[in-house]
Amino acid sequence: MTVLADYRVLDLSIAMAGPLATMRLGDLGADVIKIEPVSGEWQRHVSAGGATGNEVNASFLSLNRNKRSLAVNLKSEEGKKLLAQLVATSDVVVQNYRPGVAERLGVDYASVRAIRPDIVYVSMSGYGESGPYVSRPGQDLLLQAMGGALYSTGSPDAPPQAAPYFLADAIAAYSAFEGALAALLHRERTGEGQLVEVNMLDALIAMQMQELAVRTVGGVPQSRSTQVHAHSYIRAPYGIYNTADDYLALAFADLDVLAEALDEPELKAWDAERDGFTHRDEISACVARGLRRRTTAEWLQDLGSRGVWVGPVYSYDQLVEDPQVRHNGSFITYEHPTEGTVTTPGFAFRMHGTPASVSRPAPLAGEHTTEVLAGLGLSTAEVEALCGGGVVRT
């Protein structure tokens, strides 16, 4: 028995943040029903990197395993009635519609709660459910830019650098996952459902607990360095450096040890804790010069043996082949009916008593429409009639 067995989740979300949150609930055994338009969810038609696939693209595959698909026209009265029947049998509803859409479709919290009073309703947005930015587009890069952290990246004479992955979406997804689980626990104890609001801006801010407190409590401003440096609030040397053949990550090194290993005696003139902030560029320049003299493999061996914290800088291809990643089982492989063998990142945590697993590959649009509606008591003839009327897709 899985930890969320017998819980039903209605996934009314699109793009990344909502589908990732609901996929995690599905990984733990919840029956996740993806409610999508008859034409299919937006992400089916737009894939990152142009990875189109055969019938299901890589983006959709990565965010929608362990779900069933009900393709239904929620603008039709018949479609709304079907959704209301599903709400009555569900425990969690997740949506990330633009402001006003949920109300127009009759799936806002008040409407859903009227059908299922103990529902856990997770509403996701870019900036919040109200306020001056409520209508702004909740797009990942825009949220990263507003989140404050980018002013700690890059050099002073260049634009701040964004994270090279969908950071805001991912953080919001895990916040929604956490909120849904907490609300379900509360319901188990009290019998009460509730509204859970998650927005990408607050999620990014909460993630920067330490950095923002250094500024708001400690009064230390952000500053960017001309030389290599990866974090405004950590002393030099700290960052990704060139070697003779590649790159090397280096953190919290003893300057006397580095002076000897890199043949850079100038480093001995500084005390890391005293000078690591005030002479950040000078220290980093010395380290950068020394590291260019040998290969990454040589430095990993030499500096590692001296107790210096160093590591390789991987591409995705190197990450997948890493022995620790393989040992951990960080990636999982399963079969998909149209895409063949699929390898994707696995699970963020492990529960030894009730482990997560893949019981369903990402669905085709409307693949489970007949199955889901049969669970509501509709006959094959009734489903065929709805399909013929454009209400659902099978």
The CATH superfamily of the largest domain is Crotonobetainyl-coa:carnitine coa-transferase, domain 1
Helix content: 25-40%
Using only C-alpha atoms, the radius of gyration works out to 25 Å
The low-pLDDT segments are none
Largest sheet: 7 strands, mixed
Category from helices, strands and their pairing: alpha/beta
CATH structural architecture of the largest domain: 3-Layer(aba) Sandwich
H/E element order? EHEHEHEHHEHHEHHEEHHHHEHHEEHHE
Q: How many individual helices?
A: 17
- In order across it, which strands form the biggest sheet? 6-5-4-1-2-3-12
How would you describe the shape?
A: elongated
Multimeric state of these chains? single chain
β-sheet strand percentage: 5-15%
> How is the CATH topology of the largest domain named?
Rossmann fold
Task: Report the top-level CATH class of the largest domain.
Answer: Alpha Beta
Mean pLDDT: 93
Number of domains: 2
Distance linking N and C termini: 30 Å
Written overview of the protein:
The protein is α/β, with parallel strands linked by helices and 394 residues long. The chain has two domains: 8-206 and 326-393, Crotonobetainyl-coa:carnitine coa-transferase, domain 1 (Rossmann fold), CATH 3.40.50.10540; 238-242 and 247-312. The chain has 17 helices and twelve strands. It has helices at 17-27, 58-63, 77-88, 101-105, 109-115, 140-146, 167-190, 200-207, 209-216, 255-262, 272-275, 280-291, 296-305, 316-321, 323-328, 369-375, 380-388; strands spanning 8-11, 31-36, 67-72, 92-95, 120-125, 194-199, 238-242, 247-251, 309-311, 331-336, 340-345, 392-393. The strands form three sheets. The protein has a seven-stranded mixed sheet, with helices on both faces. The two termini are 30 Å apart.
